Amino acid sequence: xxxxxVDDEDMIRNVLKEYVxxxxxxxxxxxxxxxxxxxxxxxxxxxxxxxxxMPRLDGFSAVKEIKKFKDVPVxxxxxxxxxxxxxFGFEIGVDDYVTKPFSPKEVMARINxxxxxxxxRDEVGDVVTFEGLTxxxxxxxxxxxxxxxxxxxxxxxILFYFIKNKGIALTREKLLYDVWGFDFYGDDRTVDTHIKMxxxxxxxxxxFIVTLRGVGYKFEV
Amino acid sequence: xxxxxVDDEDMIRNVLKEYVxxxxxxxxxxxxxxxxxxxxxxxxxxxxxxxxxMPRLDGFSAVKEIKKFKDVPVxxxxxxxxxxxxxFGFEIGVDDYVTKPFSPKEVMARINxxxxxxxxRDEVGDVVTFEGLTxxxxxxxxxxxxxxxxxxxxxxxILFYFIKNKGIALTREKLLYDVWGFDFYGDDRTVDTHIKMxxxxxxxxxxFIVTLRGVGYKFEV
DNA sequence: CTGGACTATGAAAAATCAGTGAAAATTTTT
DNA sequence: AAAAATTTTCACTGATTTTTCATAGTCCAG
Lengths: 221, 221
Fold this sequence. Notes:
The structure is a homodimer.
Chain A: E1 2-6, H1 10-22, E2 26-30, H2 33-42, E3 47-51, H3 59-69, E4 74-78, H4 83-91, E5 96-99, H5 104-121, E6 127-130, E7 133-136, E8 141-144, E9 147-149, H6 153-164, E10 170-171, H7 172-180, H8 189-202, E11 209-212, E12 216-219
Parallel strand pairs in A: 1-2, 1-3, 3-4, 4-5
Antiparallel strand pairs in A: 6-7, 7-8, 8-9, 10-12, 11-12
The structure holds a DNA duplex.
C-alpha cells in the first residue's frame, strides 16, 4: 500500500514513515499541501496522512484540491482537537482524524481501518486494461485505443465473462449456461455469431479472443 | 430551530425535549426509525437526534433512508463507542456522535455546532455545473442555460441520485431501491416514465442521461 | 493433399426492449 | 371538498438486438 505523508516537520514525517514501512507499506513524503497536490496529480496513493497546519497550502485546502480530481482516503493529523475543525474536515471528505500528540500505533490502526473500508467499496475493481483495450465495469464502457465502442448487452456480457475468466478455456455449453442462463435451449452456433460481432467491435484486439477448435473459446492476453 | 428526537425510550426523549425547548427550540418526537422517516418526508427539521438501537427500523437504516431524499444534519446517540460504528456512521452522512450516557448539555452544544455549520453552508450552497446544466443542491434548483426549470420532487431526486453516481451504470432495480425506497413494489416501467419527463425538462442536456439497453440508465458527461 | 469436421460470416426472421402517450391512482394544494 | 399536480400503470410501436440458418472458409488427420 502506498501512503503519502504530508507534514512540514521532518521529525514527524520520519517517525510516521518508519512505522508505515515497518508494516510493509510504501511511504512517500510531502512537506506542504502544495507539494502534496502536485504529487497526487502524478501518482496514485492508497491513503494520505495530512497535517492541518502547514506553510504555503494548509491541510484542509490541500484535501479540497485533491478531492477535486481524485477520490483517495485522507486521515488528518490535527494539533487542535476542536469540534469545528473536525466537522469541517468530514465535510470536505476527510475519512478520519488523529489528534496530536498521537501514538504511531494509533495512526497505523486507522490507516488499516480506512484501507479495509476502501477495499470493500470497490469490490470488483472498476477498470481493467489489456494493451489498448479498456473496460470500465462501473460505467459499462469499453474503449479501443481510447475510442469508445458501443457493445450490445450480450456482447458486453460475454466480454465481461471472458475477462472474469481470462486464460480459461470455455466451452460453448458453459458460455451458454453462464452468460445466457440455465434456461436457454437454443442453438450452439448462437455463440459463434455473438463472438463474431464482439470481435468486430474489438477491432485489432479481437486477437484476445482465441478459438479453441472442438471446444469453444478463451480470452487470453 | 426544529429538532427531531428519535428514541424508543420515553424518558430519554423527555429529557432531551426539555433541554431543546429550554434553549428556545422546537422539539418533535419519534419512537422509532420508521416513524422518523415518515415524519421527515412530510416535514423539515434542522437537526435530528437519532438513537442507534431501536425497534422496527434502527438508527443507521433510518438515516440512510432519510438522506436519500433530504440533506439534514444528524447527531447519533450511541450506546456503543466502537470505532466501526463511527466510521460507518460518517459514511452514511452522520454529522456527529454522542455516546450514552450523555449530559444533555453536551448534546445541546453539539446541536449548536451542527446548526452553525449548516448556516455557513447555506451561504455557499454546493452547486455543480455540466456545460449549461446547473444544479444547486442547497436550493434544490436546476437551471438549463441559466433558465430555472421546475422539476417535480421525483424528477429532482432522480437527477440528484444520477449526479451522485455519475458515470456509473444503474439498473432500474437499483434506481427503484435507492430513489423510491426499499419498500417500493411497483412496475419497472415507472422509471422509464420519470426518465422521459426528466429528459424533457433537461432539454438539450437530456444527452447526459444515457440509456443502457438491457440494464437501465447512467448519467454521463 | 484431400475429405470431413468444425468455425466464420452474412442475411433474414424472431424476440426483446425502451420511448411514448394517455388514463388511472394517488398525493398535495387550494 | 374540489382542483391541481404528481406519480404510476400499461399498452402499443418502432428500433435494436438476438437467434437461426445456409453458405463459405479453414483446419487437420490420414
